[in-house]
Design goal:
Elements (H helix, E strand, L loop, with lengths): L2 E6 L6 E10 L4 E5 L4 H4 L1 H11 L8 E7 L11 H13 L7 E4 L2 E2 L5 E2 L4 H10 L4 E5 L3 H5 L5 E5 L2 H9 L5 E2 L25 E3 H13 L3 E4 L6 H12 L5 H13 L15 E2 L7 H5 E2 L4 E2 L1 H4 L4 E5 L6 H6 L1 H6 L1 E6 L2 E6 L3 E6 L18 H9 L3 H5 L3 E4 L6 E3 L2 H17 L9 H7 L1 E2 L1 H14 L3 H17 L4 E2 L1 H9 L4 H5 L1
Parallel strand pairs: 1-5, 3-4, 5-8, 8-9, 12-19, 12-20, 13-16, 16-19, 22-23
Antiparallel strand pairs: 1-2, 2-4, 6-7, 9-10, 11-21, 14-15, 17-18
């Protein structure tokens, strides 16, 4: 007899659930034990109708369904198909393969199988636990096949699922995902025709180019209408290289748990770009809920989290970002259980210089009091600003230039090839790795040391400047930092808001 398993999502890890069925003498009924919620208990009625309408005979005995571990709460309709196969497996006693099989799927009353979320997470967890076979809905087939080594059967009905459980030849091997090379850099297929050739502020384009090339956090301040939001939204997705296969695995697992996977996209290879609204709560940004679902910072893992009009977000939300920016993880705890999501995201923030947006303008009058400007910038706090590698204060007189997407991509490709060869991106380098890789010539060293002493710069700010210097050098194919690299990096470290306060 086959041993049937399903999957219960909780946080990033989730748990395998063993589905056991016992038929015994007594008044015909179906009992479900194992801390099942309402949707799982309703499985009894859906399974009964699906089994009968699929041409099988539903047992006339008393049916006991056990979902273990018993102390783990089971939720969702994904248990329909494993329960139905468990009942038929217990009734026939023979003809089924003698293997451990992961089964996921929701049943219609007609016996057809509907797609469910969390398939990639379930399949990868099952394969890591030694399970080599999986039966999933046809709509989730490609998602399941992205787990290398797993043998998958995609089914559209209960009849097909029973046939697969009787014949191992129905299980196909996962397709091979080709990785060009460890240092290969590719971009999305979007051509960028809507922005290529547009005239935009030269300093803004350069700041975005450097931020993307080294995955540095970026803060842009400027008056309303200067092009902050439009440039970030259009340019960054075009310039950010696609994820490697290793990077995409954790991203795909998170998106699978959140139900964001596309049927035609077995792996998330395009870098995530998340744009939450200003009214987002702490739970929406960091994650939460009964099952500890992923928040925006985890959905932006290995990608970009863009906070437009950042000063309009709640102060508690902004301050919550400080720890994940350092640790690249977020730990959530609910009802005695905890889970840790990866949250290695690049933070991009855009904001006005004051509540009305006209502070510092030569053409318009700022109506904000000194106190309101101070309160406006206090929402960011010095510790959060210290974690920002590039700070750009836009000016009305900034020179404009035409956007050349291909040229920008070439610079970024050069930097990414060097960083992937070194096994980490510049913004993620530890203090030890940074001291090993950030080599400055004598003139650059003197300029940086003098500036640090003159402005009494802290260790974190100095590290951020060094990381930006290294990225600027990498974009030119160099690994030795020059004087010009240091001067440019220093120009992106002047904090407009806190100096004003």
């Amino acid at each position: 007899m086959a041993n049937i398993y399903s999957f219960s999502p909780f946080g990033y890890e989730g748990s395998l659930v063993s589905v056991e069925v016992d038929l015994r003498r007594g008044i015909p009924a179906v009992d479900v034990v194992g801390l099942a919620d309402g949707a799982v208990k309703e499985t009894r009625e859906r399974v009964r109708s699906a089994v009968i309408n699929s041409g099988f005979e539903f047992p006339s005995e008393r049916v006991l369904i056990s979902l273990s571990p018993a102390d783990l709460k089971k939720e969702g309709a994904g248990f329909d198909l494993p329960v139905a196969l468990g009942i038929l497996n217990a009734e026939e006693h023979s003809g089924f393969i003698n293997e451990n099989v992961l089964v996921m799927g929701e049943l219609e009353l007609s016996g057809r199988v509907r797609a469910v979320k969390g398939i990639h997470a379930a399949c990868s967890t099952a394969f890591d636990s030694g399970i080599q076979y999986a039966i999933v809905p046809k709509a989730n087939f490609e998602e399941a096949c992205s787990v290398q080594g797993l043998k998958v059967a995609g089914v559209e009905s209960l009849e097909e699922a029973v046939s697969a459980l009787k014949d191992v030849t129905c299980f196909g091997k996962a397709f091979d995902i080709q990785e060009e090379s460890a240092q290969s850099v590719s971009f999305s297929d979007e051509e960028g025709e809507d922005i290529d050739g547009l005239e935009l502020p030269k300093r803004l384009i350069r700041a975005i180019e450097i931020a993307v090339a080294g995955k540095h956090n970026l803060l842009i301040t400027g008056r309303p209408g200067c092009g902050k939001t439009m440039t970030v939204q259009r340019l960054i997705p075009l310039l950010t290289p696609n994820l490697t296969v290793d990077e995409s695995q954790s991203v795909t697992r998170i998106w699978s748990l959140a139900g964001l996977m596309k049927p035609t996209e077995p792996l998330v290879r395009k870098t995530p770009f998340r744009l939450p609204h200003q009214t987002a709560s702490i739970e929406g940004i960091c994650g939460g809920g009964p099952n500890c679902r992923p928040g925006e910072i985890s959905l932006a893992h290995n990608g970009v989290l863009f906070l437009d009009e950042a000063a309009e977000f709640r102060s508690s939300v902004l301050q919550m970002l400080r720890v994940p920016l350092e640790s690249h993880t977020i730990t959530l705890s609910r009802a005695g259980r905890s889970t840790t999501y990866p949250a290695n995201f690049q933070l991009i923030m855009a904001t006005n210089p004051c509540p009305c947006g006209n502070y510092g303008s030569k053409e318009k009058i700022c109506l904000c009091s000194a106190k309101s400007v101070e309160q406006y910038w206090k929402k960011f706090s010095a510790p959060l600003i210290d974690r920002i590698g590039i700070i750009l204060n836009m000016d009305e007189e900034d020179e404009k230039c035409r956007v050349d997407v291909d040229e920008l991509r070439n610079h970024i490709r050069t930097a990414f090839e060097i960083q992937r060869k070194n096994s980490d991106y510049n913004n993620n380098l530890s203090s030890w790795d940074l001291s090993e890789k950030a080599k400055l010539d004598d003139e650059a060293m003197n300029i940086l040391d003098s500036w640090v002493i003159k402005h009494d710069v802290g260790t974190r700010r100095e590290s951020n400047i060094l990381k930006v210097c290294l990225t600027i050098a990498n974009m030119d194919g160099r690994e030795i930092i020059s004087k010009d690299d240091v001067l440019e990096a220093i120009s992106y470290s002047k904090t407009f808001g806190l100096a004003t306060a």
